[in-house]
Specification:
single chain, about 160 residues, mainly alpha, 6 helices
Length: about 160
Amino acid sequence: MRWSTPEARSAARRSSVSFPSGHVAIAAGLALGAVLVASPRSRPYVAAAGALWLAVTAAAVQALYWHRPSDALGATLLACAAYAVATRLLPPTLPGAAPDPLPRRRALPALALAPAAVGALLAGAREDALARPLVFAGAAFLCAVLLWATATRRTGRPAPPRQQ
């Protein structure tokens, strides 16, 4: 691969082997682990805090040129895949079990992801460039959206149908 500018070559040297980002994987894994053990009532709020933490971490490691956007997204996808496997291994839910006590609100994703977007913009900001921080913030926000979408779907397997 040929790097066109000295700045790009310098950034490539600083992040030679970086996939996936361990910093982002830890943030995503711990956030999804906290969601997994949280009560159903507090799960959306724990997911919102985790999305904010993940967005700031992902934007910061990109702004420091420790990782590329694909490294942050790859780490988030790996953590989301591990969470999906973990939730499939949970025992089946009972057919007559009560639904989640917190009703689904349409505004909750926007309220949860707005601080993540602001955090990603602030953490990805750099004085030496204008467009690159927007790419960093966009990738970090996408990490937060992936975490939110993964964490807020229903967990566990449905119970098998009863034999009559």
